[in-house]
Every structure is written in structure tokens, then in C-alpha cells.
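Structure first, sequence second, as always.
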């Protein structure tokens, strides 16, 4: 599976573009993603959100308006993209253009997205409703802000839980196999095995 990536916004947030059998899929929508898609001359069919933090959803409404694509997310992500005042209620001076999701996604061993089968894993702790999408055939995980090269997602934002996050990584991501590649929401790609052995937040004699 080949993919393209774009890094946008002040938080340098990654999004990933994959071509499924029945059309293009974008994972997450940081600031600038819509213009990037236009420059790629892509007819986007589907936008999937790993979670609802503002840096990952700033261009969702623009992309929906421009491409008329469907939007899929976890039910807990829905208010983060549909309520203009959601982030203000937590004390953040942040605002996005609201948009409604077209369908919801929850954890499942297999789900078809435009002819591409993916396992969906729910790994909260960084953000409620945080999803990871695993292409088993290609050993490729689109992981959002759950796991990074040498780090993990921050857990000090509203709804965060560091123990829940670490348990989710160990119990749900480690079993995907050491050779599984991880496309993270920030920073470079990595592999499950690399993080299992060397990530300072995850090293444990129980998992070596």
C-alpha cells in the first residue's frame, strides 16, 4: 500500500492519503489539508478522523464543502467537530467551522472502507474516542496521536488518562506485530517493534 502525507498547521500535524479500490481516503484534516488535496488533483471520497483534537480537524468543514466526501468518526468525536464552542467550554480560545459526520466508527475486527478492509482499534487516553486504523495485509497502522517515534500522545488534555493510553498501546497495538509500521499524527513513521523495545514510556520486562 502506497500513501502520501501532508503536515500542516502550527502543531505540524500529519494527515495521510490512501487510494482504496473505490476512491481516495484521507485520514485527519489539519490546517492546509484542503489546499494540499486540491494541488494533488485528488477526487476525495472519504475522510476518516482518528480523533477530534482541533489540530486534526481544522480543515474538515472545508474538505467536506469542497469535495462533498463522507466523514466518518467515533461517536465521541462528533461534538468536537459539530459544536463550534466545544473547545471554548474547556477554556481553550479555539474555534472551528462546525460540520456533522456522515457515519460513526467504533472498534471492530474488520470494516470495509471504499473496498479497503481495515481493523479499527479504539485506544483512548490521549483523547476520548481515539481510533487507530490497521491495514492487516500491508502491516500498516494509521495511529493518530496514540503512539509516536520515541514517545506517546499527551494525556494532560481534557479526557486524557496516561494509564489508559499505555495499557491500550500494550494490549492493542503491540499484538499487531513488531513489523507493523505506524503512521503517527506528528513526527516520522516508526514500527511497533522499535517502540516496544526502545520507547521510554513503554519499556517493560513484561513486553520484551
Amino acid at each position: 500500500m502506497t500513501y502520501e502525507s501532508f503536515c500542516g498547521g502550527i502543531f505540524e500535524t500529519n494527515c495521510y492519503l490512501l487510494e482504496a479500490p473505490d476512491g481516495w481516503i484521507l485520514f485527519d484534516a489539519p490546517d492546509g489539508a484542503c489546499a494540499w488535496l486540491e494541488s494533488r488533483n485528488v477526487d476525495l471520497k472519504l475522510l476518516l478522523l482518528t480523533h477530534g483534537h482541533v489540530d486534526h480537524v481544522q480543515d474538515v468543514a472545508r474538505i467536506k464543502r469542497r469535495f462533498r466526501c463522507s466523514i466518518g468518526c467515533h461517536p465521541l468525536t462528533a461534538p468536537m467537530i459539530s459544536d463550534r464552542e466545544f473547545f471554548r467550554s474547556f477554556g481553550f480560545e479555539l474555534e472551528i467551522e462546525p460540520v456533522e459526520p456522515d457515519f460513526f466508527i467504533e472498534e471492530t475486527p474488520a470494516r470495509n472502507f471504499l473496498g479497503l478492509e481495515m481493523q479499527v482499534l479504539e485506544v483512548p487516553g490521549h483523547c476520548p474516542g481515539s481510533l487507530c486504523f490497521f491495514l492487516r495485509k500491508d502491516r500498516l497502522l494509521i495511529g493518530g496521536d496514540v503512539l509516536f517515534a520515541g514517545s506517546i500522545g499527551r494525556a494532560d488534555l481534557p479526557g486524557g488518562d496516561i494509564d489508559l493510553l499505555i495499557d491500550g498501546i500494550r494490549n492493542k497495538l503491540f499484538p499487531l506485530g513488531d513489523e507493523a509500521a505506524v503512521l503517527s499524527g506528528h513526527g516520522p513513521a516508526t514500527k511497533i517493534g522499535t517502540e516496544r523495545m526502545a520507547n521510554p514510556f513503554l519499556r517493560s520486562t513484561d513486553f520484551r
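Margin note: The chain has a mean pLDDT of 93.
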